[in-house]
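User: Can you write out an input/output pair for a complex, sequences first and structure second?

Assistant: Here is one pair. Inputs:
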Amino acid sequence: MSLQLLFDALSLGGIYAIAALGIALIFGVMKLVNFAHGQFIACAVFALILPSTDAVAALGLGLLPTPLLILAILGFGAGLAVAAEALVFRPLRNASPVALMVGSFALGVALQNFLLVLYGGRPKAISLWAGLGAPVRIGPAEVPLLQLIVIAAVIAILLALGLMLKRSRLGLEMRAAAADFGMAQLLGVRANRVISGAFALSGALAAVVALVMVAQTGVADVRMGGQIMLIAFIATVVGGMGSLPGAVAAGLAIGAASALLQAGLPDAARPFRDAFLYALVIVVLLFRPQGLFAAADAKPRV
Amino acid sequence: MITQHRIRRRMATTTPILLALLLLAFVALTLALGDRAAARMASETLIRVTLVVGFWIFAGNSGVISFGHAAFACVGAYVSAWTTLNPAMKATLLPGLPPALAEAHWHVLPAALTAGLVAAALALVTGAAILRLSGIAASIATFAFLAMVNTIWANWTPVTGGTSSVVGLARYVTPWVALGWAIAAILAASLYAASASGLALRATREDEVAASASGIDQYRHRLLAYTLSAFFCGVGGALAGHFIGVINPDGFYLSLTFLMLAMLVVGGIGSLSGAVIGVLAVSLAVEALVRLEKGFTLGTATFALPPGSQEIIIAVAMILVLVFRPAGLMAGREIMLPARWVTGRGTSQN
């Protein structure tokens, strides 16, 4: 039981951490709270299937062999995010964070309605990787194979991203831009490259979340990115805005809290799990309004 | 001798009067020229004026965008439904209501006031936590608050009816009722904006650090504005419920949040006139687009926009406004009478 709970918590928290990273990366470089991230996830899900308003989905990209499929969807997510940056956020580059946030909200609404026009409002069944639901015995627990894959993938992604940020030139530039964008530009960091890079990474991370959600639920729904985006926001606030390790840690913590609440709450209260979760977050923020892992320079200097 | 300051004060008092006259003209014009659909559009627009002006009281003065105000409208709509619905109907629709509410059968006006007060009380409690956060983090927390209210309302079936709609609300909202509340909201908003607290709050909007160095308690003024603002959003929600007669938690969720934000951004968040003009402009655009979605005939061919394109067009328009006219249509200015009209004869400045 407890081992099962551990796997539930890790896989859920891992996905939340990936989603939170997607938000925190962009917030780090351009102080944009990306309200369109959930729609990036939804678009990546719908990219798997052909546009139609029928109830049963016909796979499009989803027919590719698995390694190609993963690459194609990651590329689609990255491309979508880069296009969104070029069309919407680049003209708003010098706008206030509030205007950026409102702009991203509008972009999210536009994308969602675009999906509604193309695919209709009803959720569609997708059968992708149906074999992954098979349980695997580990000691006393029975864990779905998918959970193990998710946990492994999350660890691999976090390691790769960490290496990239620490070792590669683009990573270095991103960290410099996150610390002080103006100063980084003066020292020769190319703003467009760093920002496009951050958006591409963020879009690819959104695509990872999309693939995992499709494999878990077997459904494509226009609204499916909304809830996880909200959790990711909360994780970035709890982790301290702009702190990447903070976002990952908070994402894992929220996943764990969510799994614990799911297991611990009485049946009658279970539909309200998310409400308890949000309330818990507000309580945490009451005691640490700057977040748990706030960067040292998070406070504005005068 | 009349001072510059007094002239400004007098000019500022003309703003709500002019806005009220503008709305009055809008109602008179649509009722005189239009059909029943136009009258419906007028009521709908004025309800939105109540909502958006309420929203502006907080967002406009503090500069903090809230995504949670649709939740106050949701609470207001349900409070009004709980207190005014026929008790026999409530026994079948909402069996979980406490006895006092289950037997209540109030008149609609005290119900609307209660709706506002309950929303305001909720804002006071949740705002006390949320508004301790800095601007952007507070915005995200209001979004969490919206999702929290929606989760509770969609699942608390015995009391809220869950995701199925609550029907049978008395449909008393005519354009004139909506006009009354819209004008009340405008008056309250301009009184608040002219008050010491409103001024202090706008100071924190311009420069948080300088304001706090001048001894302004940002948290207190934000909380006051948030509470007042929730009152009118609660009332607006109650009106919206009684206008359609059917309420549903998802009617007060993301699409309403988006619409309220779009109106405020298009009109300009910096002034009360911007909020009102934004509602009028976006409502007229939405009405036109909805008619286009239904289809129109040009010669022998019938054209129709695909359903759902209305939101896309509004969203794109909103982004264009943000890019090309970031301060909105009104660019932070108020509609007011010019100085020489308010100073009286013989005392004009030149």
